[in-house]
Amino acid sequence: MTSPESTVHGNDFASERRALGMSMICGLVLAAIGIAIGVFIGSQIILFDGFYTFLGIGLSWMAYRVSHLVASGPTSRYPFGREALTPLIIGVEAVALLATCAYATFNAVLTIVDGGAKLPASWGVGYAGAALVVPIGLWWWMRRTARTSELVAAEATQWLAGGALGLAMLVAFLFAHLIIATSWARATRYVDPSLVIAACLAFAVPPLRMVRTTFVELVEGSPPAELARPTREAVNEVAELFGLGDQHLRMSKVGRKFYVEVDFVVDDGWTVRQSDQVRHAINERLAGLPHDLWLTVEFTADRTWGA
Predict the structure, then answer these.
(1) pLDDT at residue number 166
(2) Residue 136 pLDDT more than 80?
(3) Confidence grade of residue 12 (pLDDT, cut at 50, 70, 90)
(4) Is the dihedral of CA 117, 118, 119, 125 positive or negative?
(5) Measured between alpha carbons, how far is 18 from 194 in angstroms, rounded to an integer?
(6) What is the predicted pLDDT for the residue at 4?
């Protein structure tokens, strides 16, 4: 028997789309300002931040569309829903961000080889301040929704990384302006491209983790420990309660959907009523998990079917 019990309600999807919509609006404004200022004052790091944010807008729109599709639930063509779109879009997002970082790093290295670049003027300091405050504010606002949405969690991670870059820019620009009248003045020409390289190295870590998570989900690997542990404990508790010693548990997570399959080997005298009691007991214990639970509990007297 399969029970597609859902622990995610319509309000969660609405909150998810609201967070993604706000992210797109703020990203569009910040990206436009960053690209304009980056071109105007010739700053690679500001231009990189602007393009990185602009790329995030397109990815946010894709995530927004995926949220709509997933929320529509199973259809005749997709009887198990379209939950796999969630890790897929997160993987696409991660690869795009990694490609952007690789290209920016290459350009920054060429700039250093050519003798560096001019230190950004006060416009750069002002943008760095905005690039710190806006992303951190959005990350803080998204935290609650990110607990139940992997799409928003990926978006919040991007904004947190953007806030870290804003802080790095602000500190570096202020320090460079302090030493510009000293014997270290020549070093200021390498501040801008060095920031790009440092930012790309730091920004590469979250996308790499996202790629790993996406791969595990798409090949139906084991779920994270925070899901696997309570599930295993719940099944063991129910098995002990009903005297079921021979069990086989399989789990996987794809997007919001959490698949749990349990096979019990029972005696010939086992009844349908007992089977339903076991199903209800397991479902009750797993109902509090923050995912759409797809529970399958099977019973057999033939050990070969329970392997």
Answers:
(1) 84
(2) yes
(3) low
(4) negative
(5) 36
(6) 43
Q: Write down the domain spans for the chain.
A: 9-218, 225-305
* CA proximity to 224, closest of 248, 254, 246, 249: 254
Scan for tokens 């991670």, then name that residue. Answer: 157
Q: Please check the confidence at residue 9 and state whether its pLDDT lies above 50.
A: no
Amino acid 23 reads S
Q: Is 169 helix (H, G, I), strand (E, B) or coil?
A: helix
- The answer to whether 117 and 111 are in contact (CB under 8 A) is yes
H or E element: which one contains 138? Answer: helix 122-146
The domain over range 225-305 is classified in CATH as 3.30.70.1350: yes
CA-wise closest residue to 159 among 33, 45, 49, 11: 49
Query: What ranges in 147-255 are assigned the alpha helix state H?
Result: 150-179, 191-203, 205-218, 225-241
DSSP letter at 261 equals E
Indicate the CATH number for domain 9-218: 1.20.1510.10
How far apart are the C-alpha atoms of 149 and 78, rounded to whole Å? 21
203 by Cβ neighbours in 10 Å (0-12 / 13-18 / 19+) ranks as buried
Q: Which residues have CB under 8 Å from 147's CB, separation 6+?
A: 153, 290
pLDDT digits (tens, 9 = 90+) for 192-230: 888 888 888 887 887 888 888 888 888 888 888 888 999
The whole model's pTM is what?
0.65
In single-letter form, the type of residue at position 249 comes to L
